[in-house]
Amino acid sequence: MFMKKLVEKATKKYNGGGGINGLKAEEVRPRLVFHYGVPPESSSLAYDPIQHILAISTRNGVIKLLGKDDSQALLQSEAAAPSKFLQFMENRGILLNVTSHNHIEVWNIDKKQITHVHIFNGEITSFVVVQQSFYIYVGDCLGNITVLKLDNTLQCLVKMPYKIPPSESCGTQTEADSDTAVIFSSPQPMAESKRVLIIFRNGLISLWGIQESKVLLVAGGNAQHSSQEPKLVVSASWACVFGSKVVVGYSSGDIFLWAIPVFLDHNSEAPWNHKDSYASQNVPLLKLNLGYKMDKVPIVSLRWFAHDESSGHLYVNGFSDSGSSHSFQVIIINESTQTRTIKLVLPLTEPCLGMEIVSCFSNQSKNRQNTLVLLLRSGCLCLYDDSAIEQYLLHCQSKSPPTLPKQFIVTLPFGDSRITVAKLYIGPSSPVEESVAMQDQIFLPNKYSSLFSMNMKEKDGSRRSSAHFSGFSKAKNLLVTGHVDGAINFWDASCPLLFPLLSIEQQFNESCASSTAPVTSLHFDVSSHILVSGDQSGSIRIFSFKKVQETSESIFSFLQAKQGDNYTVHNVNLRGAIMSISMNMDSKLLAVGTDKGYVSVIQMEGTTILYQKQIPGQVYSGIMSLQFVNHGQNGSEKSILMVGMEDSSVLALEEDSGHALSANPVKTKKTCKALLMHILDASPNGVWTSDYVDTSKQSYSKQLMQKQPLVLICSENAIRLYALIHVLQGIKKVYSKKKLDGSCCYASIIHGSSLDVGLALVFSCGKMEIRSLLDLAVLNEVSLRGLIYPTLKSPPNAISVFCVSSEGEFLLVNGDQAMLFLSLLSHREIYRHLEYITNVYTEGLAPQEGTSRMKNPQKERKKGIFSMVVKDLKGNKTKHSKETDADESIVNNEDVELDIDDIDLEDTKEKHKGLNLAVLDKQKLGKKLHALKGTVGKLKLNIEEKMNSRKDKHEEEKDISAVDKIKQKYGYATNDESNTVQMAESKLRENVIKLKAIGLRTTEMQNTAQTFSSMAKELLQSTQGSKTSLRV
Question: For residues 769 and 783, is the Cβ–Cβ distance under 8 A?
Fold first, then answer.
């Protein structure tokens, strides 16, 4: 039944009396379905270590999000501006993007939309988010520090009435003509709400006290340099978990390590390093000599990641503007760094634009794996195993030094080599089948090849070949791809995450010059189970798959047999690279066109060449398209082979002999490169007759021409329609012509629900147009960003590969980096319920241990970042800003909510021996016990309310959704399984046990307090008695 539907669709049998009907505007709705891979022109990276989301910004305004379990999303703003700074508000679902226009975009990751755009008045040179808060430090080119706050309810940025001008932050070392642009501004670790470090471009380092509203430290500056050429700061990073060291990179290639004072309080456990006394002097702690200074390579970026409390790894990235000199190094920063430098130079072939340490978690082992992600200038992502880097640094000075860490380039996991040609086939399906396919889309993505998986690569760095998979009997859509190495792969395209079905490797051919020539053309006839491929060397391979009984739900079940046993292959060698292939299953003939202008007709049964004919071209000599046409005249039917040349000329040949029906082909006045030739057949049975056509007339009505077959020629700059009868006679008469606005790089025919015909065009600028036939009017257009499109000078299939099904499903492959899925028509949705692979954000995710980049051993309790300056904003005279009218509704103290999990029942502090009456205060102790009793009572009430609400919710959610039914049918766990309820109840029981223990401890403390009180009274009485006796 399915095969019959597909054959009817393939033969395009029209209902009624015939005629060419164009697409309607209401049938067209181009939209992006899914973007897979890394977008081109990538420029910067950002990472959320709690949500495990990697963000990649591009120079055309596109932001790609890569999350756990291969979930991916694409963010596109209307303003296609490059990104300057990109940062997450960790675990809040907010991404902040600073564009080159100094606009700050607030992205809601869950909704994938911009909620606010803050227009900053000035050039932003520094941008940092104070994590675990809603505050942002923005530094500008004039040296000002502006504080912004995110309104979490409205998700918009609010400018705070707190500003640090350079006249105050630079102290007494302000120079009128110096470059005071802020390069680095970051809160000091362990004192985020009290200190902020500001580093200016001129080298000045300033530690600002928020509570004191004054400068606490001033160091550095160009005044210290003895050389005539000043050193400009390019990058900086903290180099200590306690905030006592900062590393600064300069434009001259110098790297200095500066000491920053840590103002300790009595509760802090941070050790005071005696070397920090150098901070009072204008001398750095350490000057790192890594070879950058010799060639004056600017230190573009510095990142430091803690290994433990006393050491860490410093990642140094330096390259010149031209890119001729570049180096990326990793060094160990610890107490012995001053005497020796342990470093690793990564062998990068091009400069690095961005770096991040990404934590990957395996679902099976739950082991954390850190990966160094480098963004190269070409837009590729380069991966290094961070544990391998650490092992190298630890053993590089041993007698047997280890090998360099292995480098991995992120590419599409679809074959061992780049895709050069693709064909997409959409099978028929009913709503019930689409519902089953939805279930597959929900649960199968975890089994797909991951984009960042380094385990599926061999030792030589190449990916493993796509093995044959036998469990694809439910595949509804099929994608066939040809690759650079000559391999042909079959993929289940029911979900945008392609699943491998079958792989056919290139076999060595003695008569062929190359055994791994790239595949240049594919033609797959699903009804006859015949696949024909052509490659760059001129080799034709004909695969005949064995027919099997249709017992499976899929029309592609014939691919399910054991690899090698389910098909036979025949080879034919021709002259030139294969450009076009066409089949006539009635006559069992195969037509092949090459780039040398040869047209070859082959008998498929015996693989004998019936004839070869070379057609000379003017500028372009290739055979762009071939198509068989049945022509009926004088009661007899005759098959004709239509030949579309690459120079936009058209010629008709007799199928069996190859003789031209006219002396001269139909040509255009100006030679232009053709992209598509297609015969628009208006006959109801596929056989066109010209018995009633009067060719002597010079013009025909539109009604008459609409019922005649037409030849569509689409070139780079125009679309032309010819009457087929005129082409057969060699008459150059254009029925319709439309000039294109731009350079077109791809064209394809699409069909609507009632087989209405339309034309899809893709332009080099990224624009896509959908036009109707026959009037060639534009029905809809859309701008496609996230891919690189070929130009006139690009070689075939060098950058992008286009593929479209007759149903309007579009696939664009950008080399081995990205793949774009689009749907052009509105009558059918073959990709549904994609939220499971497009949702990168997880609501309510708790931070895991070790996710913090600085790994602070003991962070201060957040009391509101700027709560210290509320008094100063209200009444005190401030030096740091003229904006002293503060509003308490804007600057709020962040209340700390007490949680049951924060209560520790164990005594961690050391108990002093004996009774210290000096610190014993009965009244204070009673107040504390009373407050603790009230807190315990509130916690008990909250737990009882949670238990009651959970029971009510569990009783209300009895209705099982359709998705849950499907999950239960296939043995998968539903969303509301009892294990979640059991875990919650277990957690509540633990909290109740804690509360009971707290009650016991409270009673013990009361008894102890009473005992202490009685003992104190007795001691007091005895003391008074002894004093009285002494007086007597």
Answer: no
Q: What is the CB-side half-sphere exposure of residue 816 using CA atoms within 13 A? A: 18
Q: 690 and 631 in contact (C-beta within 8 Å)?
A: yes
Per-residue tokens: 342: 């342990």
Looking at the DSSP assignment, which residues form a beta bridge with residue 718? 739
Q: Using CB atoms within 10 A of its CB, is residue 301 exposed (0-12), middle (13-18) or buried (19+)?
A: buried
**CA nearest neighbour of 487 among 542, 418, 537, 424:** 418
Burial category of 428 from C-beta neighbours within 10 Å (exposed 0-12, middle 13-18, buried 19 and up): middle
H helices then E strands: how many in the chain? Answer: 11, 56
Identify the bridge partners of residue 55 per DSSP, sorted by sequence position: 46, 65
Residue in this structure with the two tokens 């005539």, named with its chain if needed: 228
Residues 762 and 745 sit within 8 Å (Cβ to Cβ): yes
Q: From CA 602, how far away is CA 13, in angstroms rounded?
A: 27
Two tokens, residue 158: 């609010």
Query: Tokens 């990235």 — which residue?
Result: 317
**Three-state DSSP string of 798-819:** CCEEEEECCCCEEEEEECCCEE
- Taking Cα atoms as reference points, which of 309, 183, 291 lies closest to residue 242? 309
CA distance 50 to 950: 27
Token code pair at residue 467:
């093995």
CA 1028 to chain centre: 85
Q: Which of 645, 636, 584, 631 is nearest to 610 (CA)?
A: 584
DSSP 313-358: EEEEEEE-SSSSSEEEEEEEESGGGGT---EEEE--SS-EEEEEEE
Could you tell me the two tokens for 453? 């998986």
- Taking the alpha carbons of 725, 728, 734, 738 in that order, is the dihedral positive or negative? positive
The tokens for 30 are 């181009």
Short-list 854, 788, 856, 784, CA closest to 824: 784
Instruction: Work out the end-to-end distance of the chain between its first and last CA atoms, rounded to an integer number of angstroms.
Output: 121
C-alpha to C-alpha distance for 943 and 286, rounded to whole angstroms: 55
Amino acid at 236: A
Two tokens, residue 784: 């496609």
Return d(Cα 78, Cα 182) in angstroms, integer. Answer: 29
Distance CA 412, CA 40 (A): 13
Q: How far apart are CA 735 and CA 706, in angstroms?
A: 10
Strand partners, 819: 36, 813
Sign of CA dihedral 685, 691, 692, 698: positive
Task: Give the phi and the psi of residue 1016 in degrees, each rounded to 5.
Answer: -65, -40
Q: For residue 25, give the DSSP letter.
A: G
Alpha carbon distance 738, 756 (integer Å): 20
pTM of the model: 0.77
Percent of the chain with pLDDT over 70: 66
Q: What are phi and psi of 259, to 5 degrees?
A: -95, 135
Residue 6 · residue 378 · CB < 8 Å = no
- Alpha-helical regions (H) of 875-977: 922-956, 962-969
Here the tokens at position 657 are 């002999």
Least confident of 130-139, 227-236, 1006-1015: 1006-1015
Contact 888, 870 (CB under 8 A): yes
Q: What is the pLDDT of residues 697-732, one digit of tens each?
A: 444 455 555 567 889 999 999 999 998 888 988 888
Give φ, ψ of 758 to 5 degrees. -140, 170
pLDDT tens digits, one per residue of 602-652 = 998 888 999 999 998 778 889 999 999 887 666 667 889 999 999 999 999
Tokens of 296: 């004056």
**Residue length, the chain?**
1032
Separation of alpha carbons 879 and 875, rounded Å: 13
Tokens 């050790």 belong to which residue?
Answer: 271
Enumerate the β-bridge partners of residue 760.
748, 770
Residue 430 DSSP one-character state: -
Q: Which of 607, 560, 577, 564 is nearest to 482 (CA)?
A: 577
For tokens 């990642």, what's the residue? 315
